[in-house]
Amino acid sequence: LERTATADCTLGDTGIKIHKGMVIIIPTYALHNDPKLFEDPEKFDPDRFLPEERAKRDPYSYIPFGDGPRYCLGMKYALMQVKVCIVCVVANFKILRCPETKVM
């Protein structure tokens, strides 16, 4: 993500100054794979996106489509495509639970 500062500001209590016109780049891959924000970030763990887990961290720690007035216009389309894909898989295949799968 790339944005241009519209005013001078200082980041919180860090003392880092951002001047008007300065280009700010947010490295989303690094953000989404930061072990300070996500325990074992390389592990596939859908539970980290459960509401109770999301409430534990900063809402801007995971921004796959950006945020604010310039977020990705394709976000709703992409999320709908994922839902359609899941429906197609469920409708066309028999899905069985593996014996090792724990049922809660």
Task: Map the helices and strands.
Blueprint: E1 2-4, E2 9-11, E3 16-18, E4 23-25, H1 28-32, H2 51-54, H3 75-92
Antiparallel strand pairs: 1-4, 2-3
Membrane topology: Peripheral membrane protein
Organism: Araneus ventricosus (Orbweaver spider)
Cofactor: heme
Short description:
The protein has 104 residues and is an alpha+beta fold. Helices cover 26% and strands 12% of the residues.
Keywords:
104 residues, alpha+beta, two-stranded antiparallel sheet, 4 strands, iron ion binding, Cyt_P450_CS, microsome, monooxygenase activity, heme
What does this protein look like?
By secondary structure, the protein is an alpha+beta fold. It has a domain at 2-71. Helices cover 26% and strands 12% of the residues. The strands form 2 sheets. The protein has a two-stranded antiparallel ribbon. Strands 2-3 form a two-stranded antiparallel sheet. The mean pLDDT is 91. Its main location: endoplasmic reticulum. Its cofactor is heme. Heme binds at residue 72.
Content-based structural category: alpha+beta
Neighbour order of strands in the largest sheet: 1-4
Helix and strand element order: EEEEHHH
Tally of contiguous helical segments: 3
pLDDT below 50 for ≥5 consecutive residues: which ranges?
A: none
Radius of gyration: 19 Å
Q: What is the β-strand count?
A: 4
Instruction: Give the overall shape, derived from the CA principal axes.
Output: elongated
| Helix proportion range | 25-40%
Q: Biggest β-sheet, characterized?
A: 2 strands, antiparallel
* Chain-averaged pLDDT: 91
